[in-house]
Structure formats: C-alpha cells, structure tokens
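call fold(seq) -> tokens
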Amino acid sequence: MTPHKLIAEVDDRGRAMRVANALQDLIEPAPDALTIFEDKQDGEPAATLWRIEAYFSDAREAEDLEAELGTLLGEDAPRFQAADIPDLNWVALSQAALPPVRAARFTVHGGHDRARVPQGPNAILIEAGEAFGTAHHATTFGCLIALGKLAATRHFRRILDLGCGSGILAIAAARTWPRAVVHGVDIDAQSVVVARENAAVNRVGSRIRFVCGPGVSAPTIRGAAPFDLIVANILAEPLVTLAPDIREVAERGAVVVLSGILVREAARVLAAYHAQGFALLDHRRYDGWSALTLVKRT
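ret:
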C-alpha cells in the first residue's frame, strides 16, 4: 500500500503546534507518522514557516481534513496539499526528526539522542511509536510540567497513571517519587505492552504495575486504591464522565492532574470536578491545550 502525505505550512509556531496536536490526538484515524520542521525562508526580512507533514496509509482528502480540524480547533485550518510518497518507513524517519524535549525537571528523548542527553533520573527515553506520549504533544508536556511543579512541595505514596499510553507519566512519577507505588492502566492492550517496555528501558519496570483494563474499574486498580496522586491525560469528554469514578479512588487531599483538554473545554471539565469536591490548584495552557491540577477537598 502506498502511503500518502498531506503538507501544510504555517507562519505561527503556536498555531502549528495546535494543528499538529489535533492531528495526533483528535483525528481518527491518526496519522501513521507526523513531523514538524522549522523552515527558514530567504528574503528581507527573513521569515520562518512551520512545515507540518502527516503520513497516512490510506488517502485522505485535504479538504475533508481541513474541515475536520477547523471544527475541532474552532479556527480556520491551514491549507493542506496532498502527495503520494514512496513506500518507506516514515514512522522511523519521523522518530529521528524529533529533538529532545525539556519539560520542568525532565528531558524526554529518543534513542537517536541518547549520546547527546545527560543520563540520570530526569532523563526519560521514549521512542515515538505505537503508543501515545513523547512530550512533543502539548498534552503530555503539560502533565510533565505539573509533575515537576508538584515535586518541589509534595510527596506521594500511591500514584495512578490513568490512560497510561506510552507510560511516560508513570515513569516520570516513579523517577520523581522513588518510594511511591505506581500503577498504570490503559484500555488498549498494545499501549500496556509498550508502557512495560518503556518502563524497563528506563529502569523502573519493577516499580510500576501496568494493567490492561477499563480504567479505574479494573480490579487491580480498585484493589490498590485510594491514590494520593492521579494523572489522567485523556480527552475532555471521558474526563467529565470519569469525574465520579476518579473521586471514588482518590483519597481526601489527593492531587489530580488532568490533560488532553482543549482550552475552550476546560471550564466544562472544571465544573464536573468541582461538583465532585475538587478545587483548582493550577491551570496551565500550552498551544491551545489546558493542563489542570486539582485537589480533593472532601
């Protein structure tokens, strides 16, 4: 099957990141690979464009993708151009194009940058691949920033990564609070496989218990509750639905970090958690996405 490429050029970095995050997080099916390049333009004055390239196994109509992105983001989508490309491993190529990401105390990098990144408890190796989560996404980045901020003032003993994906947030939590017991759960079996592999590579595999199951309803998660820190990087709609369940497995005084929320959706998510006895500690915005840190008051 010949892959297909859709290309857009954007003159604003924030807008480019919003579009790229929506392509990866909200479009179904997501691209098989996604790259963003800074493209310096000749001329006086010099200009910078951000080139977004999305690779799909099946052809996508540029106009349909633009319409879908516009609806999701609440703003005009950039114009995309389509092109057929040779049958190459574009997932691997896109991995090699991803630079390390600094997020609070953490540096997230791929194997191709291992030699360039100082190794230590704050260096996390995550390859872009079959499970979500490399910190290049504003949603994951926001969670890491929140964990880094919490590390300065709080200690946790029982931590849950709800919708663990690649396992990056569970790994970051295990590195930050080495005495804590960390659980991760995802409804997707392949994500759990990848998360376990990533935890082993990052030398915290024995300290994180990953399970495949229906979120907080999974027997292992119910048995490990209550938690004093819960991180959920999902999407706004399931986060609203899960608010009563998250309250049930969170102890009094527990901190909850929520992400995967478009800024325009944050008020609805906050209202759902306020109704469950949570109070807002912090609200950070990154490239059109919100990261919420809350505490359970009752």
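The radius of gyration is 19 Å.
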